[in-house]
From TrEMBL:
Coiled-coil annotated residue ranges, if any: none
CDD domains reported for this sequence: MPP_PhoD
Top-level taxon: Bacteria
Cross-referenced PANTHER family: ALKALINE PHOSPHATASE FAMILY PROTEIN (AFU_ORTHOLOGUE AFUA_5G03860) (PTHR43606:SF2), PHOSPHATASE, PUTATIVE (AFU_ORTHOLOGUE AFUA_6G08710)-RELATED (PTHR43606)
Protein name in the entry: Alkaline phosphatase
Domain (PhoD-like phosphatase metallophosphatase) ranges: 160-507
Gene3D superfamilies (UniProt xref): PhoD-like phosphatase, Purple acid phosphatase-like, N-terminal
Entries under InterPro entries matching the protein: Metallo-depent_PP-like, PhoD-like_MPP, PhoD-like_sf, PhoD_N, Phospholipid_Metab_Enz, TAT_signal
Amino acid sequence: MTHSPSPRYALDRRTLLRGALGAGLGVGLGTRPTGAAESGRVAFKSDPFTLGVASGDPAADGFVLWTRLAPEPLKARGGMSSPPVEVTVEIADDPAMTRIVRTMTKTARLELAHSVHAEIEGLAPGRDYFYRFRAGDAESGVGRARTLPAPGEAPAQIRFAAAGCQRWEDGYYTAWRAIADDKLDFVFHYGDYIYEYAHTDVTGRDRQPAPRTMPADFQACFTLTDYRRRYALYKTDADLQAAHASCPFLPSFDDHEIANNWAADSDPKHTPADAFLFRRAMALQAWYEHMPVRRAQLPRGPDVGAYRGFRLGALLDVAVLDTRQYRSRQPCGDGFLAGCAEADAEGRTMLGAAQEQWLAERLAQTPATWQVLAQQVMFAQFDWRGFPFVKEAAAPVFDLDTWNGATAGREHVLAMLQAARIANPVVLTGDLHRALALEVRRDWRDPASPCAAVEFLSTSISSAGDGPASEADRATMLRNNPHLKFFSDQRGYTRHTVTPAQWQADFRIVDSTYEPGRPVNTAQTLLVEAGRPGLISQ
């Protein structure tokens, strides 16, 4: 007689692979190293802080402080030898670092690319702090961090930016310098911090010479060394370093941190799951090593707990979501398509069951005036007909890499918002290299339909380069999408100013990414009044 294995002990190939990645590869994939050489002081021949400093994942009593020792950042080991290195972290309450309030020592190890993640606690809420690192005879620059408001406190104002999509070859990071100058409370980075593509001398759909290029030996990222070198190159940019040093980041990731349009355990090239999961493990370890995130975000093989929440007193609750790791694979072969019935199949998801449950519980418990869903891909329905790269069609054309490829998942989230009686839901998005502001309506084609939320989709820092859509394209999209209130095809970011009475979104646009230091201006300001869902142009 044949017996089926008990569900308790049944293991499929993916479960076994995850076990091998998380345990069999040991310290190389993010577990705590054991038996390593004792750490000590070293003398550096050149500056080990070439990648700058950063803070992130703030709390009311602290934050994470990050750096990575890399005197030769583009080398395989960053120019470091194998022994661990002691790194001193100093925190002060003044920018001149004359009033040191906390000192601690961390160990930078080769197994984590000599990165440092110092989780700071016990500080005062709602105030600025300043920090620096020391290693051997070297000293880093000074960064500014800020703690969140105390629980229950109602701050008069919170200012932050949403930004991402920063392909190196597509242009300069002028927008990051503008963000640094804004002196914000935090930055939500929605993803595409790096791009995994190989070196190229040209960029854009018209294949024009790239404003800047990667070294010629930068091939497409597959190994841990590939991903580490890619992050190191991007982090050498002075404007990006200035932004990181200016305020805490809430880092997320999208697709290009691993592979374009990946979904769960697969990529668009249909790479076998075992091979893809090894690649995903390499990519996520490199992401952790270069982001100011907590040890809770340390990957276990190909898996990482990236979704998490931040409460800014009684004003703002931010749920950072993960729309890649647990999603259904894109329907109908992916792409911009019309008439994909598979997209509407019941059971399709963007968040997965566990993350949906976590979000529903968080929404039910939030006391904040504003509830933010900070995520990666477009949430609202959107018809792309009329845009140059979209073929003509009789029916609306949807991007199936977005929530339009899993409409049941979107309905679940809208039902959560309604069940929790969320009065002021705001969705923050990126990925599309364009800036959009939309009203998320129950019937997206009916302007009289109830507005369930608003969505601010930030354009790219540099990806896609210069090349705005024509006025004809814009007119077609506005006609096909009555819930669309703003559209721009230029580079930049979105700056948000939140008070108990209103939400203000400034769409900041870079004059050009092909030359460094070009002007940054506000193209459009939109408002949301608390308790009155909908967008108001200013």
